[in-house]
Amino acid sequence: MPKENMTRYAILGLLASGCTSGYEMKHTIDTSLNHFWKISFGQVYPMLKTLAQEGLIVEETGDGDDRKMFVLTSDGEAELGRWVQEPTTELPVQRNELLLKLYFARHESKDTTIQKINQHAALLRERLDMYQMIEQSIRSYPGTDEAVYWLLTLDYGKRKTQALLEWCAASIQTLEGGKDDETRDRNTK
Amino acid sequence: MPKENMTRYAILGLLASGCTSGYEMKHTIDTSLNHFWKISFGQVYPMLKTLAQEGLIVEETGDGDDRKMFVLTSDGEAELGRWVQEPTTELPVQRNELLLKLYFARHESKDTTIQKINQHAALLRERLDMYQMIEQSIRSYPGTDEAVYWLLTLDYGKRKTQALLEWCAASIQTLEGGKDDETRDRNTK
DNA sequence: GGTGACATGTAAGCAGTTACATGATTAT
DNA sequence: ATAATCATGTAACTGCTTACATGTCACC
């Protein structure tokens, strides 16, 4: 059985939570869901067209705006509801370039490896800062039904990033401890 | 600038660490790198062909085996070395279906959400067990140069998985705490 | 002699990225 | 004027998955 296309549901879901135009959806994903999702205009607009053809959404013929506005049909709502409540089947295998390089790292010096991990840690710290900013912007819109769930997704990112930062520190320690390559076989207990 | 194709380097790297045939490479990835990489035969064989055409690898014309054996050329080794030591530029945005559903979870009951998180936790626990098995198989080949790096990639997965398990527990607590939807506005400090 | 694992490969199709094109509005 | 931003869209391309095709070898 072929996998379902997630882009469909991302768009249906955003439509249900107030995003009306393609441009706005892309913007919302880039700012609020960017820690676990991304999308391109090359996906958004064709998908809106498809969803309209399938009758899951309709173009809002409201007052002449510069944006194309859409709304969910009852079919669209049903489809979204069905998908949301369906269990997620399996963990995706997430390819990781850093780990791939690390796996082959005997082809480089330990210093280079350490440097790379340090750089990775810097990126992780940036990401933590970003989470902090997103959290504040969520907390400044209090009382929303969705806020609880948004904070949960954020917490996911924060915990994961924190754990990876700890991994960076531990790994560098390991590498620095065994830096003297030539003596490595001397006292392995 | 277009992104580099990682499959190239995965194959070059495996070739450098003793995998000689396409079939073996796929098998190694599925068993030893499966916590951060995957690949299909539909990638392996065409890529081997391409790499041979580019002169980065050559077909080993050794004793007639049932497998097609390859070896790295000096160009191939250089290319691998160049890539490995190059810094990884940025963190990939990893799409996460569970979080996407969670983000839209007000369209379902809290119990369904909790159930989904529980199921996710079960998968994470399975994964931890798998890590344990991989670790043992690595430790049973001691003295390899690469073992240090392999254990580092494993540790990455273990720490991350552990953190996500903690997130599952915390999230369920949060959701169970605020389960009585109708009273939610009464005493938010 | 048939079943299943090993081994290599091709082709169709899909999801996603990137680059490009177009027009409207706003700011300097 | 013109530059920048907003907004919608299309087309080419790439990477990857999936399904299929083919042949060998072992084993029962």
UniProtKB/TrEMBL annotation, chains A, B:
Coiled coil: none annotated. Transmembrane segments: none annotated. Signal peptide: none annotated. InterPro entries: Tscrpt_reg_PadR_C (IPR018309), Tscrpt_reg_PadR_N (IPR005149), WH-like_DNA-bd_sf (IPR036388), WH_DNA-bd_sf (IPR036390). It comes from the Bacteria. Residues 11-81 form the Transcription regulator PadR N-terminal domain. Residues 95-176 form the Transcription regulator PadR C-terminal domain. It holds the Pfam family Vir_act_alpha_C. Gene3D superfamilies: 6.10.140.190, Winged helix-like DNA-binding domain superfamily/Winged helix DNA-binding domain. PANTHER family: NEGATIVE TRANSCRIPTION REGULATOR PADR (PTHR43252:SF6), TRANSCRIPTIONAL REGULATOR YQJI (PTHR43252). This is PadR family transcriptional regulator. It comes from Exiguobacterium antarcticum.
